[in-house]
Amino acid sequence: MLPHQEIILRLITAAVLGGLVGLERERLEWAAGLRTHMLVCVGSALMMIVSAFGFADVLGTPNVTLDPSRVASQVVSGIGFLGAGTILFLRQEVIRGLTTAASLWTVAGIGLAVGGGLYLAAVTAAVLVVLILAALRPLERRLFRRDRVKRLSVLVDRRHVSLSRVQSELEAADINVQKMTLTPGDAPAGDRIDVTFLRSTPKEAMLAIASRLQTMEGVRSVSL
């Protein structure tokens, strides 16, 4: 059996490493943030300790063998249930939470490593995860254009054009929309309707719907 000091050290180390990853997720205000990542990491470490050392008193009993990986292996598959809860399918081609689910899965592995006494592997993995989540995000945005939204702004006269009418025109053109917002303005200026399209929307389709909206009565301006 492990000394009490070693058990405490492993659980505290797991909490700290899980918290490092959770801080980055908490900064972005994800549902699985600081506390969730800490709990996953500590829980995984505890299960690893129990799996490896919790049944030492029954060793030597006839017909009893110990498989230290048996309990720990269930963490790898069981964490998928929790990770699936962080994934949101908002609309077609719009999925959020995959990175958070992956970070939870990785944090579970970090906890298992700490519980098994592999401090170097756990600390290195935690540092790499934080670098991947925080440092690579700006680089990813710079290198890839997939995160840049496509938006159409329509300035309308509220007496003639409503949000539902603009939505009807978009549906008639068979264009998938991610989000629509209405910003009320002064009577002379008019209201502004912002339409955010899916990344896969072709530029030609956006130009076509812009031209179509421009011809509607009550539409003062359309900009991409």
Explain this structure to me?
The chain is of the alpha+beta class and 224 residues long. The protein folds into two domains: 4-143, no CATH class; 150-223, Alpha-Beta Plaits (2-Layer Sandwich). The chain is 56% helix and 15% strand. The chain is built from seven helices and six strands. The strands form two sheets. A four-stranded antiparallel β-sheet has the order 4-5-3-6, covered by helices on one side. A two-stranded antiparallel ribbon has the order 1-2. Strand 1 and strand 2 (94-96) form a beta hairpin. The longest helix has 25 residues, at 119-143. The termini are far apart. The mean pLDDT is 78.
Features:
two-stranded antiparallel sheet; four-stranded antiparallel beta sheet; 224 residues; 2 domains; 56% helix; alpha+beta; single chain; Alpha-Beta Plaits
